[in-house]
User: Fold these one by one.
Assistant:
Number 1:
Amino acid sequence: MAQRDGKIFTAISKKIDATLLKPNATIEEVLALVGEAQKYGYRGVCVPPYHVPLVKSALSDSGTEVSSVVGFPLGFVTKPVKLYEIETLLASGATEVEVVVNIGAYLSGHLEVVEDELSSVVDVAKTLGANAVKIIIEIGYLNLRQVEELSRLVADSGADYIKTSTGFGPRGVTTEDVIAIREAVGERLKIKASGGIRTLEQALELMKAGASLIGTSSARAIVEEELRGA
């Protein structure tokens, strides 16, 4: 643990994207998350599109990544809509985007549609200056073979991260999911584990399995658990 300029940095805090994506999130709750990010030095925060300008302004000098979501949480909006969302988010101050894959198209066997969409969203986001593009595959709707195949498609697209879950799907992430993704893609892209991560033990197990980043709405609890054990 280190402390600098009133901020507390732990081993886990720079591996966390603190998330607030519930539909009834208020400005007061968003500002509380900003305060946590300023105190604990989270790697990033992920907030609804509506709140991006506020969060970007509040964290402008902090080095904290500001991410938001595209096609969230179901992924079935059309490609032009996703591209417009990306453009709008980046213009409003987001530094990273998290795009839900078209799960229905994938499960229908329309791989060319999925590949085209992935390529397009990655190209547009990077052309417009996104620091990272994360693709959410929603592992709860997939079997192991599908997780591996879709992970390879994401890797081929040039995305920076594959994200396991929205937090709104049928289940959260497991270490087995992360291991399967890592085995499928090797080191071609990073893994953001998310969905149901509420304890330090869970976070550490997922990182040991191969996750580079943890997405959680329990960031404060996880960091403070580490602090108590320091």
Number 2:
Amino acid sequence: MVENSLAMGAYLESKLREFKSPLIKDIRARGLFVGVEFHTGHHVDGNDLTKILKDYGLLTKATHDMTVRLTPALIITKPEIDAALEIVEKAIEDLAKLGQERMQS
């Protein structure tokens, strides 16, 4: 499990770093313990993203308002990470739309 955590954590972090969103400020990781930090000023926060992810069936935890914690099982596989990343990418797109809607109202 330790080796899998290190390998899959590095894979997850590298894939998250490929996301090109103006909302993302930083990606921090230690094994499979990953934090995605968002910029302020976009009228959305980590709590908004956790709600969107929950609607897609992915449970996460917002911390310090602007950070979302991803903590998958230590036995996760690459195909499972890829499936989760598709959900995260779609959820971040939804988050950006939510921020735009809030700015306009």
